[in-house]
């Protein structure tokens, strides 16, 4: 039985495919059309997941879309009756959304160039938060667990608490419009100049540089209520009067108008305009710290209530707010929950997998545990070799050394390059699902090399100097280096670095002595585990610095995009499949922009 799940006409458009209850492929549209967080219809992603599975539109049995405008009607009606004056723009926006979803069958046929009527599958709509919840629970290893979803909004809700058992989800309570942790976080990010879609992670990284001096104000801004509920002081926000107006920025990514009112300036001073990191003041850092502190308190407040209600000690999390890995890490310390599962695409792309898993389970298919994130595009050895041939031909005058190696030699030589302080692009197997590079499309470096963080930020990633880098560690060595023994395979948990290991991990130890850890399991990611093991043998440190393989763009998808990133940046080497390519750092490759652009536009279909 084939089930396609899609997140469409919403940021982070994506598609996922299940066959007989097993996940086969999952891809975000941004990786293919190269527009970060892109919304709209995931035409390329749909085509790609079908291509990966070797099936066509006509083969599908069910199609699920993670959106149902009929959901939460009682809450909607109640809100309209109470706030008739302010609903105009909001209602208009929702009518527009429905228009975008009308004719989904036609959009699918159009996306694949198939004649109308080619789709025999029934299209099912599943509420946004139920899709988030399904992505968390149905992909988890737990037979029974508490489930919590937190985001900006979707289908009039921003939070769903539920219990998952076997293949079923039982909703317990929702927090509905206009109250939302996601809106709070995004509004404050905008206030301190981080107003791009997806900037919340940067503010999480900025927070440890400040003190929560505005904690008392944030307690007023976000109030906790009984039973895990919460509410915003709406006088500081305008989404409930103006609607959440979305457009696109100059790169084509989604863009929100500011969500805060002038009243916020009375409490915090004037907002900071978007601009260079040098203009960030200590006030901005303190606001970030206060926001993060209140969010962590909210996580604990909700999770404790969920435990009290269910008595369960396993928790599944999803929703854009669950990408806050610092808050996730605090749950294990400060609540009775003992085990936590966060699906790799916790944000809205993840609803594609969630709706597919939900529809599949409803049809009686078995559940499938998602243990790694390698569900995207992959390329054959021949395709990789051909791209390398083209690349070398285009840079024939450059000092490149290309070698093809057996696995053991490849791991030994790559680890040796990293051990010497080189920065290496690592391109292997199927592209990651979710926002993190997890050993398939990664840039790797020595985690303890002095100055590595600054070097990477300035010379390769071209981003703010405060931005931290993450460690990939052998799962079996986690508690030797960090104050936790709980696996974090998707880099969605932050743990304290053990005091004795902070110098050894200088490049991945954040300013507050924590790390956003990826644990690497021997059976789930054998090649990456082998590389870290080899690095550990050579240096004594079973950890690699792992950052996404990109330069201010979506993570690379194709070998050509990886090679272009290698040419554009000061990467010392790149490994694609079994090929190791070294360049002389003293003689950077010519930046052939035209060719780079041509290659970046190429998609694997
Ligand atoms: Fe969401």
Sum this structure up briefly.
This protein is of the alpha/beta class.
Helices and strands in order:
Blueprint: E1 2-7, E2 14-19, E3 22-28, H1 29-33, H2 43-53, E4 62-65, H3 73-82, H4 88-101, H5 104-111, E5 122-125, H6 128-137, E6 144-154, E7 157-165, E8 168-176, H7 181-191, H8 200-206, H9 215-221, E9 222-224, E10 230-232, H10 239-242, E11 246-248, E12 254-256, H11 263-268, H12 282-310, E13 314-318, H13 325-334, E14 339-342, H14 350-362, H15 381-394, E15 400-404, H16 407-419, E16 424-427, E17 441-445, H17 452-460, E18 470-474, H18 478-481, E19 493-496, E20 514-520, H19 526-539, E21 543-548, H20 559-568, E22 573-576, E23 579-583, H21 593-600
Parallel strand pairs: 1-4, 4-5, 6-13, 13-14, 16-22, 18-20
Antiparallel strand pairs: 1-2, 2-3, 6-7, 7-8, 9-10, 11-12, 15-23, 16-17, 17-21, 18-21, 19-20, 22-23
Helix pairs in contact: 2-5, 6-14, 7-12, 12-13, 15-20, 16-19
Bound molecules: fe (ii) ion.
Which characteristics define this entry?
605 residues; alpha/beta; nine-stranded mixed beta sheet; five-stranded mixed beta sheet; 21 helices; 23 strands; 36% helix; 20% strand; binds fe (ii) ion
